[in-house]
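Our platform keeps sequence and structure together, in a single record for each protein. Such a record has a labelled line for the sequence and another for the backbone structure tokens. This encoding replaces a full spatial description with a residue-level series of whole-number codes. Below, we set out a record of this kind in full and without editing:
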Amino acid sequence: MTRVRLLCRTTAALATATVVPGCQLGSHTTAVERSTTTTTVVRHPTPGPTKTIVRNYQTLQAGQTGELFSRSQHAGLDINVGQPAVSHDRLSTTHGYPPQHGSFVTFKLTIRNIGKVPVLISRLDFYVDTQGASHTTTDDGNSPVSGSESQLDSTQLSRGEHLTNYLTFDVAHTSGTFFYAPHHDKSLAWRF
């Protein structure tokens, strides 16, 4: 009996298999030679298109009045946001719940329409950002059940009209930024 040595080259990449004639281990076994074909794919990342959005809004201190005017829409507002009153308990002695996140901050708002057309004001146009929590609205936490005597609701201000009302937010930290952002577009901000 004759020993036949199987000669094969092994590589990491197996691209094709070729039959090696005349190399037999028995009557029906054929040795297979592996040939190597290495394909290198080089990918050069290309940056996609970029879009730069510049949002420009005035940032004030709580207690200051901000003015907003749209010449194309003939709309204008003066908005004063007072320093927040802070409470760690419900806002009524007879009803309501304590804050879920630690504190209620209540802002007094005075809004005046200084434009030529009516303007719709909604409480959800306002929100606060505090440490660890962004975009906190008057619907978050226990704000809706705080026991507050008065809360701003959706209202339309005609030319020359003004209103004074309050917004309460349930927050963990009592400092941050108060935003007026109608249609999710930051227009004015107040630090508190």
Confidence is low (pLDDT under 50) at residues 1-33, 50-54.
